[in-house]
Amino acid sequence: MTAKTMDELVALCKRRGFIFQSGEIYGGLQGMYDYGPLGVELKNNLKRAWWNAMVYENDNIEGLDAAILSNPLVLKHSGHEDTFSDPMVDCKSCQARWRADLVEDSKCPACKSTDLTDPRPFNLMFKTSVGPVDDGKSFAYLRPETAQQIFTNFKNVVDSTAKSLPFGIAQIGKAFRNEITPRNFIFRVREFEQMELEFFVVPGTDEEWHNKWVKSRVNWWEDQGVPESSLELYEVPGDELAHYSKRTVDIMYKFPHGVEELEGIANRTDFDLGSHTKNQDELEISADVMPNKASNSKLAIQDIETKKWVVPYVIEPSAGVDRGILAILNESYEVQELDSGKERTVLHLKPHLSPIKAAVIPLKKNNEDLVKTASDLKKALQKLNLGRVVLENSGNIGKSYRRHDEIGTPLCITIDFDTLEDGSATIRDRDSMKQERVSLDLIPEYLTKVINS
Ligand code: GAP
User: Fold this and answer.
1) Which end of the chain is more exposed for a tag (fewer CB within 10 A), N or C?
2) What's the 331 CA to ligand 1 centre distance in angstroms?
3) Which domains does the chain have, with CATH numbers?
4) How far does residue 318's CA lie from ligand 1's centre (Å)?
5) The pTM is what?
6) Cα(169)–Cα(150) distance, integer angstroms
7) In the 8-state DSSP scheme, what is residue 104?
8) Does the C-beta of 263 come closer than 6 Å to ligand 1?
9) Cα of 214 from ligand 1 centre, angstroms
């Protein structure tokens, strides 16, 4: 089951504290969102799942957390200064600005005037001044992708970790794009997070590695609760490829507003390492790169046997955290009709992603013995380090169950008066709503199994 409309998800996110419009009390800021108490847990869990799959499960992949503010030379030589733009038109009548592909029949979508400028490129990078003097010369870009700092740190990582090909560098972090038309909730925003891997390979093995990574990424999304049946692979046509790409396969997802890109997997060849290298003519670089005198580095790796310097090709699986969150929320959302005639909303989140892993609920609010037992259990479960466990002293079991179904908590554990006698508690499963009695001392093992399932 999925949501019928984006509005259902937006309403749930606000009502339960997943995602809020940024600066809402001042009317908001277009294309910016804040993650609330549950949103930050869900987001951290998704990022952790990606980091585990990339860095911890692969000894040939290292992590990185680089600066967001970027030296303009990095983005000049990466090609972003010249090419990272969308064609846009201005309406001379109402002054609105539109992405050219959103303008139909040469009419302004707002006022319907046909008095429009010709399409002009609009660079999507945000600039900010650096240092105390705003003279227009000392500026930095807010990175439009996390990838560039991976390339510029290539030599640092190789030298400090003694890597040989194939190997990867992974990074999760913010990226910024001055999108002309941010829209569809957190789908297209101006500040977002990416999870990017740059996987460096021997030239000639790149096509095989590309196909491997496409398969592996689809499997990973399945593990996060986004089934293959909701995904499509899109072979990006030649005239739509980014300036650095030889081939890109997009993983597309059926978002509530339509089928769109969730993750892109590109073969960036030796374009980026070649572009950031100083003495390019000493190396065999296949890509068409701009001459570089400003860099002081040779971003290549020496073949141990032949001693020849090789500029690796790179395969880049690049996923959006925010789009991932939207897909996962959509995929897990269900409104069920119960036999009682009532409805319940439930998020069937994979337990490792659930913002709250378990809620411990004393049957009677403020009852000293029940609350003490519940509190001891909460502390024991929290110590397992599986994620957040809450003690819910509301005294209203039905209301607690409804709330925890709606936010995707896999287990609710009720401490009642029998618990004080027999040392067991009632565990209710979110998806089946089945209840069973489990001895208190077995509950840590029970929860661990559910979260790691
Ligand atoms: N380093 C390659 C790169 O940045 P991209 O296709 O432009 O490629 C990768 O971006 C991913 O980042 C996309 O698949 C998408 O999930 C996410 N993304 C890109 N622009 C976004 C935006 N404006 N809002 C939210 N996510 C975005």
Assistant:
1) C
2) 20
3) 6-81+143-329 (3.30.930.10), 354-451 (3.40.50.800)
4) 7
5) 0.95
6) 7
7) -
8) yes
9) 16
Residue 266 φ/ψ, nearest 5 degrees? -110, 150
**Which residue type sits at 154?**
F
3-state secondary structure 216-256: HHHHHHHHCCCCHHHEEEEECCHHHCCCCCCEEEEEEEEEC
The C-alpha atoms of residue 9 and residue 326 are separated, in whole angstroms, by: 8
Could you tell me which residues come within 8 angstroms of residue 3 by beta carbon, excluding any fewer than 6 positions away? 9, 256, 329, 330, 333
Structure tokens at 183: 């829209």
Contact residues for 310 (Cβ-Cβ < 8 A; gap 6+)? 165, 202, 203, 284, 300, 301, 302, 303
Residue 60 DSSP SS3 = coil
Q: What is the Cα Rg of the chain in Å?
A: 26
Distance from Cα 419 to the centre of ligand 1, integer Å: 51
Residue 218 has what pLDDT?
Answer: 98
Nearest CA owner, ligand 1 atom 14: 263
pLDDT tens digits, residue range 326-385?
A: 999 999 999 999 999 999 999 999 999 999 999 999 999 989 999 999 999 999 999 999
Residue 357 Cβ contacting ligand 1 at under 6 Å: no
Cβ of 193 below 6 Å from ligand 1: no
Interatomic CA distance for residues 143 and 148, integer angstroms = 8
Q: Is 406 in the pocket of ligand 1 (CB under 6 A)?
A: no
